[in-house]
Predict the 3D structure of the following.
Amino acid sequence: MTESVLLYNGWVVTSYSQEQVTSPRVTPDGAVVFTGDRITAVGPRANLESDYPDARRVDAGGGLIAPGLVNLHHHFYSALARGLNPGTPMSNFADVLDRLWWRLDRALDLETVRLSAQLSLADCVRWGCTTVFDHHASPNCISGSLDAIGGAVKESGLSALLCYEITDRNGHDQALSGLEENLQFIEAHAADPRVRGVIGLHASFTLRDDTLAAVAERRRDGVGCHIHVAEDPVDVEATQASFGIRPVERLMRFGLLDRNGLLAHGIHLQADEYRMIAEHDAILVHNPESNANNSVGHLNTVNPTGHGCLVGLGTDGMSSAMLRALRSAFLLHRQVSGDCASGFDVLPDLLHNNVSAARRFFDEPLLGELVPGAPADIVVVDAPAPTPLHTDNLFAHIVYGASESPVRHTIARGRLLLEDFRHTFIDPVALAARAQELSPALWARFADLKWGTKYLGE
């Protein structure tokens, strides 16, 4: 018989939604019971202790017991770039792509692809992220790359939506190979409960018309596209120069803009493009920390939201700490807007929007809720509330408290992956040691690669 686990002694947050409901969304001194991979009961601690006297007990230490976090845009393959010196000046975002990331992805082999995924997944566990959307590139080892990442995801215990980045910058044959890698992975994992696939696209300015036509022709109904859009003005300007059209309308013309579309960034778009995204029910993903790091600008989430867009949150490979990304979104919003009273209108919805987006890709209508029957994906943040906590001020408690606090427990589909701040299935020290062995050769391959890549290849 499957053992029940009683997670107790914490403030239970059943949802990140800001909507008012009749039942309380925040329960002080609450508890959650899960059996196998499902939540079986949620409520006051005293009631559940009485109802489940034989359950295994896990102490939340007075912290926040909340739904596991979702990251809508990550790049696992960046894990081994920490401290890497490109060895050449970079004066703009096009340089950053060409002289850093497009050299790193070409230097990867299957072993470093898998290790990068393992390192990033360990960080996801550490920061309470139980569902993550990854966007991968490794032009010199395309075939089998998604299987390598998918295997690491399954071993980690987390859930993930994976894709390979199709691009023509390394030639059209490689673009078609990237499409094949996506299609085989999507088909093989169509019924997998925890690992699914979509089609990955780099950005409009590195994709030829015949490549997008091939994607449109071979993509079956319901399969999404995960693409970078208007992260920097170069995407808009180069797309217009090459194709006479802006990126969002180009996606629409090829039939690639729909409710399963994930559009990362979207900073340099116009009002009509936000309306177009909203009309097609696509998802826009804000990546505040990465955008600040690359000096590409800041997405004013009020604008796309005002036009009806569903706006979620990602980390774009900068880290796996979603609550810190939320805090960054909030602080950058205030800095850019110049309004020290702003940020409480749209930004509190980001975490729930991530949940809403993730439900589109997994057969889990209760994903991201702490309610009976939902997947037992739970994070316990070590942030005991020093002042009254309720639904109306939950966002303030997260931004000003929980976002700076360590995660005590991470539970994914009923498995305690992080217990009392320690990994139980992943050994991050061993992974770091392995990375120390492999990264010098990776960095040497990187150093031998030239830059000056043409956006659309030869």
The first strand starts at residue 4 and ends at 13.
